[in-house]
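Late entry, zinc ion complex.
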Amino acid sequence: MNNLTDLSKITALAKRRGFIYPGSEIYGGLANTYDYGPMGVELLRNIRNLWWEEFVHGRDDIVGLEASLISHQEIWKASGHTSGFADALVDCRNCKLRMRADHLLEDYIEKKGKELDVTKKMEVISPDELKLAIESLKVEGWSEVKMDEFISAFYVPCPNCSENKGDKWTKVRKFNLLFPVNLGIVEGDQSLAYLRGETAQGMFINFMNVTASTRVKLPFGIAQLGKSFRNEITPGNSVFRTLEFEQGEIEYFFDPEVNNWEELFEGWKSSMWDFITKGLGIYAENLRWRIHSDEERSFYSKRTEDLEYKFPFGFKELWGLAYRTDYDLSQHEKGSGKELRMVDSQTGKKLLPHVIEPAVGVNRLFLMALSDAYCEEEGRVVLKLSPKIAPFTVAVFPLLANKEELVSKAGEIHKTLKRVFHATVDARGNIGKRYLSQDEIGTPYCVTVDFDTLTDNMVTVRDRDTKDQERVLISNLIPFIQGKMESWGK
Ligand SMILES: [Zn+2]
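Prediction complete; structure with ligand written out below:
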């Protein structure tokens, strides 16, 4: 299992080899934005395509959707986002650092750990709450008043300056996370719209469109892959949390009188787990499930669990799974005044279905894939990415760059391989350097064309993980690589 604890090793490699660049860099950068380079965009697309393949094309009960990023303000009122979707922030009055108050507290509790006095007398925080927070390192669901009390009672210092020893914080205040947009073509109040804060609402507001225009029957899901926007203060863990991010969400609708929600929930848990471990080839030891406590779970949700990955900065949410009852559809019935009940073609019953929602952050899958694959061994840095998601599946080398017959043979092979795999040609430097260079971007197979190739029609295939080399007939190269891809495992 990979135990990488240093995120900076990944970010340095990611920048150097064209996976991720800081956003707006030549203008001094723009915090919490990133651009994906030539390698990053391939990895991201491969992850995205695999998700769509698995959860839309691979199933008969899920259909796709792509809703507008700019959306009506009433959607977000009905969903509760304009009032409740907020971060509690706190500012250091000395150095002007602005932080999420829950992160300030959780980091402090984690750092102090057992030194903290769990029996400390508090006004608004109950003894049980205090004990739980210190044991679980979580303060989710705490009100601003509780966080204020904790900061002053424990003298939580500013992590950025030494002046603020816990006495120079502003009060904790809520900031809405939705990005407003002003539409030029509409007058007055109606000109306010929002960039979507999640893709999920697109599925709810199009629920009747989808049921009326397709042959879906319960239980069924609507899936969407796309950008969402949240005006968040982030702790700067690369692309883990950014202002603009990509979600893969599924709303899985069912009749609670026909389907047992606990069974569906367990089914989703195993589909998610399999996608991460078998689909993306991630070490199972780096994954765990965490059940949300009553305090942190939304009031309408009967159960919420997060699949967490062990990032270099600790176990963090990767993929949330929530049973949301019929809350969302009923909110939009109220908000829009339109009936959102469907007739179940099998029972003839008219109902507002319940929903289970698996929601994953695609950029988190990306960062997880890099973290899990990063490996330093025997003088090389290698990304042991699953061949299904590596930016290139295969690289073709002519043994010598200045021998025309080798270069043209390599070009021919590259052309054939390109029809099936994502393939590249590399003729710079010596073979050893080319291997090291391909290892760093995770290319699982390298094919070398040498002088023998010209007479025996065989090439040397080198395996990234084992460094083993095999002679393979050119005519057998495609099935050979496909076979290796099939049997790949960490
Ligand atoms: Zn400060």
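The chain has three domains: 51-77+178-359, 86-176, 392-487. Will revisit in the morning.
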